[in-house]
Amino acid sequence: MSSSDFSTLTLRVELPAAIDSLDYESMTPIQAQSLPVMLVGGDVLAQANTGSGKTAAFAIAMLNKLEERRYQTQGIVICPTRELADQVADEIRRLARTIANVKVLTLCGGKPFGPQLASLQRAPHIVVGTPGRLLKHLEKESLALTNIETLVLDEADRMLDMGFSEDISKIISFIPDRRQTLLFSATYPDEIEYISKSIQLNPVTIKVDSDFSANQITQIFYKAPKPDRVQILIQVLKFYQPESALVFCNTIEQCEVLFGELIKRDVHALTLHGDLEQFDRDQVLVRFSNRSTSVLVATDVAARGLDIKELDAVVNFEITRDPEVHVHRIGRTGRAGSEGLAISLYGAEETSRLNAIEHYLGATVNKKNPSELRSVVKESMLPKMVTLFIGAGRKDKLRAGDVLGALTSSSELTGANIGKINLFDKFSYVAVDRQSADRALEILSDGKIKGRSFRIKRLR
């Protein structure tokens, strides 16, 4: 029996069935190292990237000791963004589905306050949320944390970057000192060690290094002076033709500028950053994940919680100052053994940052001249899918099967023409292949879904 086998762990009887149902064949390195500590109640300070399996690790630890018949909030997970909080909550729910009546609630900004108050009338077993909204509920005394046994800070480095340090301290002041505290961070700046010392008791430190050879990531650096950088980026995209490319900028301002330049050059792109309204953020994430846009221009903070399992390429339009952040960026491609591509553009003024990355990786990076890209001419990079917006969602009792049934009822379209269907409370999105988009729009506009007519529109 392998030491990475889940059967080596002492778990409550319901959990192995949930783990098996999710096709977790064996523990990831972060799970194998952290779970034995967490299951006996120890504090953990872990450095691990998104996609490492850390969410399942702390979810299993929390659920293993949960007393579901005690209707008190026993666990809390604090996340930097709503997107990450939603993903964490979904993962906990999937692992909890073999345990009867476990209530997991997300409390995030960007959502109406009233429905959250109603959901808190009966205390959830586990709360997952963002600092600002959690603190607002605590100040209004609609959320009680006096019975918390497990506190998780997920992607703590990004919460510090976003200025949440004071809010986190206030939230922790509502939580009993006698608790288990689990701190997960993709990078390990000095501030992480400081906060660990102030809130954890003798934590076990765990670091899981990224393994680029195992992940099959091809990493290439192209010299790109600032005046030519947008054009070189377009050459990169046309040369490599990724179906999904995440392009990183260091600031919100640069994101907006680059997004505008790409649109002017007929590159199908969207942008994601902290200044977007929540509705727009949700729509951008849906469209990128369902492959109805090819290029997403984002900041590091906004991209946290972005879970795209098959990301073809990561492009650093600007090199980050922190080599650990660089590693975290490019580690988003080439997951689960698939081939990945990481392209970085740099100018002479960024040479010191490039040298820092080489020092951190312990290897000389592969530098190429952008002139190698110019001999290849590709057609337009239109994405293969198109997203249709439906003005109805879960509160209208709409299900994914209803949307699929309406689109395929005439036999003109089949399931093969339909991509992801995403349902929200008041609206939904469905991806269809580009060749079928106009007909799909006609079918939904002229017909009905569950016997009702809804507003339908095609997104650019």
Structure commentary:
By secondary structure, the chain is an alpha/beta fold. The protein has 18 helices and 18 strands. The chain is globular. The termini are far apart.
Unreliable stretches (pLDDT < 50, length at least 5) are none
Number of strands: 18
Mean pLDDT across every amino acid position = 89
Q: What structural class do you assign from the helix and strand content?
A: alpha/beta
Assign an overall shape: globular
Number of discrete helical segments: 18
Radius of gyration: 23 Å
Strand content: 15-25%
Query: Largest sheet, order of strands side by side?
Result: 3-4-2-5-6-1-7
For the biggest sheet, the summary is: 7 strands, parallel
Helix content: 25-40%
Rounded to the nearest angstrom, the distance between the terminal CA atoms is 52 Å
Key features?
single chain, 18 helices, globular, 18 strands, alpha/beta, seven-stranded parallel sheet, 460 residues
Task: Sum this structure up briefly.
With 460 residues, the chain is of the alpha/beta class. 36% of the residues lie in helices and 18% in strands. The chain is globular.
Q: In terms of topology, how is this protein built?
A:
Blueprint: H1 15-21, H2 29-38, E1 44-47, H3 54-64, E2 75-78, H4 82-96, E3 104-107, H5 113-119, E4 126-129, H6 131-139, E5 150-153, H7 156-161, H8 165-172, E6 180-185, H9 190-199, E7 204-207, H10 212-215, E8 217-223, H11 229-240, E9 245-248, H12 252-264, E10 269-272, H13 278-289, E11 295-298, H14 300-303, E12 313-316, H15 323-330, E13 340-346, H16 351-361, E14 366-368, E15 385-390, H17 400-408, E16 418-423, E17 428-433, H18 437-446, E18 456-458
Parallel strand pairs: 1-6, 1-7, 2-4, 2-5, 3-4, 5-6, 8-13, 8-14, 9-11, 9-12, 10-11, 12-13
Antiparallel strand pairs: 15-17, 15-18, 16-17
Helix pairs in contact: 2-3, 3-4, 6-8, 15-16
